[in-house]
Amino acid sequence: xxxxSNTSDKTLNEDILKELKNINSQLLNLNNKIEESNLLAxxxxxxxxxxxxxxxxxxxxxxxEPKKKATGRPRKTxxxxxxxxxxxxxxxxxETAAGISKKI
Length: 104
Known about the structure:
By secondary structure, the chain is mainly alpha-helical. The protein is built from two helices and no strands. It has one domain (2-60, 78-103). The model has no long low-confidence stretch (mean pLDDT 74).
């Protein structure tokens, strides 16, 4: 009789070992899925950070974009406009020069 008990213990141990191997395999699969999920979460966060950074840069660079041109027909300049501009520039230049020379 002791042998019968021994064989039943042996089969029980084998069954337990098989079940433990099965559980171990399932745990490994779950662990791999968790790692994959974590990796995807990190990638997603990285993509969100990159998108946020890109949007921030584009907002900051909007001030450097050229202003939109006015639509419609441009105003023609006349000789009178050109002379007035020259007078203004020269007058401003001489007043500045005179102001500097007076201060000295």
